[in-house]
Design a protein that fits this description.
Strand content: under 5%
CATH topology of the largest domain: Growth Hormone, Chain: A
Subcellular location: Cell membrane
Largest sheet: none
InterPro entries: MFS, MFS_dom, MFS_trans_sf, MFS_Transporter
Structural class: mainly alpha
Distance between the termini: 30 Å
Membrane topology: Multi-pass membrane protein
Shape: globular
Number of strands: 0
Pfam family, one: MFS_1
Number of domains: 2
GO molecular function, one term: transmembrane transporter activity
CATH architecture of the largest domain: Up-down Bundle
Number of helices: 16
Order of helices and strands: HHHHHHHHHHHHHHHH
Radius of gyration: 21 Å
CATH class of the largest domain: Mainly Alpha
Length: about 400
């Protein structure tokens, strides 16, 4: 039964990635069809991000009341409804409004699935699941590209991905008896502390540095992905076309790295995986900063991607070990919300900073975030062994 549920979760992770990059792919056509400025995409993106942060933050209470299976199925239904609704959108305002269910659905299901996998499955599956998310994130723009040459093609792209999400939602509702079986077992094995107050969770030793490490990781991943291309063009004189191809290798490094990390996780524990990833990512940033031939900077970009690959899945999978299974869902929701704050606000913050300092500071900016992540990660590892002795009021 657990293997059948794992297959469903793998499909759900592909589904999580499908909508993430399609707005950017379709926006050149959308903004013309709806007669809005090209910069308006930022508004829609921020609305989706806001919904994601909110639903992640409150996911623990929802899962405590309804269970992981129901929250996952309903959340995917929300994203399907949002995607299908965009097909009918008569104006940009409707796209913004439909961004609310898209964000709320994405945040809740992300938090729910990550915690469920962290508790019930080995670390290798957490790596491979996030690799499958990368497959979804890559497939979304590809599916959209098949329709963009046609009139109103972006609408058909959204409809196709929405139908895929709807089919998955139906599958998740059908699978609810499986989820319920394991959720009942969890309630028998562990004290139910899903409703513990956020203020109490934040007082746990290691909680605050854990949040900072999640914030730093997502800030690094998204800032590098957004601005490395511009850095290469401005600082090295690389053509925009070649720089874009190099950035695709960065994301390929993350996806392939997570596939390989799944095998490595069979031999190493989460702490070791995090440290190895951090060392590789820092090495890549240093290569990017040093004025070396372009091929070495390409190697640096790939190393940053490979280094990022195991860090996030390992930190997620380590959550029950750090804070206990009974507290992991509450902590997981706050971690996911903090991660989304970093990925949403830090990349545009660097863009504003670069107007005054230039793109040359990108490696320094990334290095500072990575060093802060190393410090906070080590702090978590040092103090969280004491959490098992801490009692909280549920």
């Amino acid at each position: 039964m657990l293997k059948l549920l794992l297959i469903i979760i793998y499909l759900a992770f592909i589904s999580l990635g499908l909508p993430d990059a399609i707005l950017g792919s379709a926006w050149p056509m959308i903004h013309q069809d709806l007669d809005v400025s090209i910069s308006s995409a930022g508004i829609a993106t921020m609305i989706v991000a806001g919904g994601t942060i909110i639903s992640s933050f409150f996911s623990s209470k929802l899962i405590s009341r309804f269970g992981t299976g129901k929250v996952t199925a309903f959340s995917v239904s929300l994203t399907a409804a949002g995607l299908l609704g965009i097909y009918f959108s008569p104006s940009f305002i409707w796209i913004c409004l439909l961004g609310i269910p898209l964000g709320l659905g994405a945040g809740a299901v992300d938090s729910a699935l990550n915690n469920f996998v962290a508790i019930h499955y080995e670390a290798k599956h957490m790596n491979w699941l996030h690799c499958f998310w990368g497959i979804g994130a890559t497939s979304g723009p590809f599916i959209m590209s098949l329709y963009l040459l046609k009139e109103n093609g972006w609408r058909m792209g959204y409809a196709t991905i929405g139908i895929i999400q709807a089919v998955l939602a139906i599958s998740l509702f059908i699978s609810l008896p499986l989820w319920k079986k394991f959720e009942v077992k969890d309630s028998e094995d562990e004290n139910n502390c899903s409703d513990v107050k956020v203020s109490m969770l934040l007082k746990l030793p290691g909680a605050k540095p854990a949040l900072i490490s999640f914030f730093c990781y997502c800030s690094v991943e998204l800032t590098a992905g957004l601005w490395v291309s511009s850095y290469l063009v401005v600082k090295t004189g690389l053509s925009a076309e070649l720089a874009a191809k190099w950035v695709s290798l960065y994301y390929l490094g993350i996806t392939v790295g997570r596939f390989l990390a799944g095998f490595l996780a069979m031999k190493l524990n989460n702490k070791q995986m995090i440290r190895i990833g951090q060392i590789i990512a820092i090495s890549g940033v240093i290569l990017l900063a040093i004025p070396l031939p372009n091929n070495m900077q390409l190697a640096g970009i790939i190393l940053i991607g490979l280094g990022c690959a195991p860090i996030y899945p390992a930190m997620l999978h380590e959550t029950p070990n750090r804070f206990g299974k009974e507290l992991s869902q509450g902590i997981m929701g706050i971690q996911m919300a903090t991660a989304y704050v970093g990925s949403t606000f830090v990349p545009p913050l660097f863009g504003m900073l670069s107007k005054f300092s230039g793109f040359g500071i990108l490696p320094v900016f990334l290095l500072i975030l990575l060093i802060l992540m190393v410090v906070t990660s080590e702090r978590v590892s040092k103090v969280c062994s004491d959490n098992k002795n801490i009692k909280v009021e549920c």
